[in-house]
Structures are given as C-alpha cells and as structure tokens.
Amino acid sequence: MHDHTMSFECTIPSLYIPRLKSSDMLRRTLFSTLSRPIIVSQSILRPGITPRWSRLASTASTDIKDSLQQEKAQDWFNRGVNDWNNGNYLDALDAYQKSIYAAPTSAAYYNLANCQYSLGKFEAAIQSWEKSIELESNSPKPDALSNIANTLALHNKDFVRAIEYYRKAVDIDPKDGQIRFNLAVVLEFTGDLKSAKNEYEQAIALGIERAQQNLTNLIVKMSTSKSA
Questions:
Q1: Residue-wise pLDDT tens digits, 31-59
Q2: Domain residue spans of the chain
Q3: In the prediction, which pLDDT does 65 show?
Q4: Please, what is the angle between helix 177-189 and helix 193-205, to 10°?
Q5: DSSP line for 49-60
Q6: CA pair distance 96, 163, nearest whole angstrom
Q7: Nearest 5°: CA angle at 166, between 55 and 30?
Q8: pTM for the complete prediction?
Q9: CB 6 within 8 A of CB 154
C-alpha cells in the first residue's frame, strides 16, 4: 500500500538564504518531502518565494496624476520591501496592496503573493502570482509559474495542474535545474516514471546533485515493476 501523503516544512528557520537587501533577488529554497514506501525521501526544492525589488515601469504619459500615482505606488512598494525584510508580513501585504491600488505592476503582485503565501493564504497567493504573470506577458519569467506549481503540489495536492505549471516554467527556462527536479518529483509521485526519469536526468545535467539519488531509486523501481 502506497503512502500518498506529502509533508513539508514552512518555518522561517528552514530558509537558509539571507534576507533581501537593496536590489538583491532573493531565491529561497524550502525543502519539502514527498514520501513513498521503499523509495528514499524525495525533496521538492521550492525556489521562488522571492520578493522582487524593481522600479515601477516608467510611463510616457505627461499626465501629472499618472506621475503622482506612480510615485505613490513606488513609495508603497519600497515600504513593502522594508516590512518584508523586517519580517512584518502583514504590514508588507498592506503596503503592496496600496502600491497596486495606486499603479498595478507585475512586481507588486508578485511580492503581494509572497506575503500571502507566508501568511498561509495559498489560494490568494496563486491568484496574485497569476496576476503578476498576466502583467508581464511580454517577457514572462518562470518564478511565478514555479511558485504556483509548488503551491498546487504541496498544499492543494492538485498534481495535474502543478505539472502543467512546471512545464510552462520549463518552457520559459529549460536550464533551471530546480524546476526540472520539482517536476520530476511530482511526475514520479503520479506514476509517470518515464517522464520523471527524463526530468531527473535533466536536473542532474543542470547541477542538482540530489537528483542523482532520486534517479537511482527510480531506476530500481522501474526495474522491479518490469520483473513483477
């Protein structure tokens, strides 16, 4: 009988990257586990809860009101970054919401989602990441897609949609080994062993060392299944 449970750690001490500073892009890695009998624990690397620091897009408009709104939006955005750095997620959430009200941007929605996720508001976080993706449709980045996929897998247990979002993220950045590793873990968990094997191999080639142990276990599993 297989154990189809997924456990995860989501406390701040498990995050080993230092706090966001100035214009840094923070990539936090949270280790979480998908467990199945016989197979050694398979960990999902969650790259992406990454508060963005960015200047709001400038506008060609000469409308003074627009200019003032942009300044307000940037001010609230900066306050949100500062509150996040100090661990004040509720205050950061409020600041990003006010930034969005003044002038909606992809970066503000992305950071709002990070706050919502950190406060356990997973559905709201998914919606905000979706909005972030919508607002940067001309130059999409894989971060929000990967975060949505991780949230769907870890919290919603919606593995079909998680795989869909992982694949979209891979299409944008096929050289992100962490995303390919996460995709492999979920594919294996759902029984798509052939596809999982391919993604583990890609993750290994991209420098994700822990994928080697998962691949070794998967090959044993596939061999056992054939001989059964």
A1: 233 322 222 233 444 444 445 555 544 33
A2: 6-227
A3: 59
A4: 160
A5: ------PPPP--
A6: 29
A7: 70
A8: 0.76
A9: yes
